[in-house]
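Exercise 7.
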Amino acid sequence: MSKHQIEPLFQLIKSMTKSEKRNFKLYANRIGSGKESKFIQVFDSIDKMETYKEELITKRAKDIKLSQLPNLKAHLYKQLLTSLRLTQVNHDISISIREQIDHAKVLYNKGLYQQSLRMLEKSKTLAEKYERKLLHLEIVEFEKLIESQYITKSMETRADEITSESKGLNQEMGGIIYFSNMSIRLYALYLKVGYARNDKDLLMVSEFFNANIRSVDLTKLSFYEKLYLYQSYVWYYLIIQDFLMCYKYAQKWVDLFQMNPDMITSQCDLYLKALNNVLVALFYTNHLSKFKKNLKILKNLEDVEQVKANSNLCILQEQFFFMHQINQYFMEGQFKTGIAIVPKIESFIEANKYSLDKHRNLVFYYKIACLYFGCGEYREAIKYLNRIIEEKDTSLRSDIHCFARILNLISHYELEHTDHLDYQIRSTYRFLAKMEDLQEVQKYILRFIRRLSGISPDQLKEEFIKSRRDLMKWVDDPFEKRAFLYLDLISWLDSKIEKRPVQDVIMEKARNNK
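Solution. The predicted structure, written as C-alpha cells, is:
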C-alpha cells in the first residue's frame, strides 16, 4: 500500500469502464481538431500503461512535445469529465437536475425569462420528488432573481409564495446539516479507534453524543434529517458495542429507504451502506437466519440498473457482498469453503486499486487472514497479516493494526517458530503500548504465548484449560470483550484442548446456536 501520489489523470482513466472509454472516443471524434487529436493520443498512451510514466507519452506520440504535455493533460481531464457527465445524466438524478438548472441559466442569459422559469419548475419537481433540498433551495433562489427582472400582475402573491418556500427550505437545511455533522464526526471517531477501549473512550463518545443529540419529533423530520439521525445512532452504538441497538437503528435506516423507494434509486449508495450496517450488527449478534435474508437482498442489488450504470455503486455493492460472505463463513465455521473466494477478492482489489480506500483493504486482509487461520493455513494467514503490519500509517483503524499483530503471534506459535517468538512478543507489546491499546486480555495473551514456549508437551492441555478459564471472565466485560470480536480465542483454545481443528469447533457452535 504505497503512499506515493497517484497522477489524477491516470487514476481517472483507469477507473473508466470499457463502455465509458468507447463513449469518450465517440465524443472526442465529434469535437475533433488538430489539438483534439493530440489529447486523444495522450489518452491512448495513458490507457495502455500499467504504471504512470510521463516519458512514455512523448515517446509514443512523436508530435507531442514535453512542454505541451501539462496543457494537453489538463484539456484531456476536462474533456473526460464532460464525456462522463453526458453518459451519467440519465442515471444520476442530481446531474439531471443540475443540467436543467444550467439550461434555465442559458435561457435567462438570453433574456427568455418565461422559458427559464418553466425549466426551473421542471427541475424543482424533480428536486422535491427526490428530496434534493440543496438543489431545491438553489432553484428557489434563482426563481427570486428572475422574478425580480420579470414583472407580472401576480408579483405580490408570487413574492409571498417564493419567500415562504425559501424560508422553509433554509430551516430544513439547518436540520439536515446539524444531523449530518454529528453523523460524520461519529463515523470519523469509529474509523480512528474502532470500538471503545476503556472508560475514557466511552466517556468521550457518550458525552459528545448526549450533548449533541436532540429530542426530536420524528413525524416532523424530512427524509435526510431522519437518515442522518439514524446514522448517528448506528455509529454511536457500534462504537460502544451495543449491537442490538445498532441493529435497531440500522434497520430503521433501511426501512426509511424501503418506505421511500424513489430514494433507493437516487441515493443507492446510502441504501447500500444501510444494508451493510444491518449485516454488521447481525454478524455481531450472531443472528444467522436474518443475516442470510439481508445478504440475499444485498446480492440482488447487483442486477439493479442503477447499480450497473454507476462504477461507485458497483464497487460498494461488490465489496460489501464479499465482506459479508466472509462473515457468513465465520458464523457457520466454513473456513475451508471460505478461502475459495480469496482469489476473487484479490482480483476485485486489484481491479479497483485506484478506488478502494486503505480502510477497506485493511479489513479485507484481516478477514482473509482469519479465514486461513480458521482452517489451519497459518503461513497464508501470516502473509495477509504482514500486509497490515507493513503499512506505515497506523492512524486509520488502529484496532485492526493491534489485533493483526496478536493473530500474527498466535500463527507463529502454531508454526512452532519459537526462535522468533520472544522478539515478536516484545515488538507487539511495544506497538500496543505506543497505540495506547494494551488491555488486560491482550496482556494476558502476550504472557500466555511467552509461557507456552517453556511448557512441556504433557502440560500443555492443562495450560490451555487454565487460560480458557481465565479468559472467560472477560468475555462479557464491556471493554475487554472487544478482543473476542476480532479473535475467537475461546474457540481456538477449545480446539487445542480437544485436539481438533478450530473450524470443527466453530462449526459445532454454529449448529448449536441454531
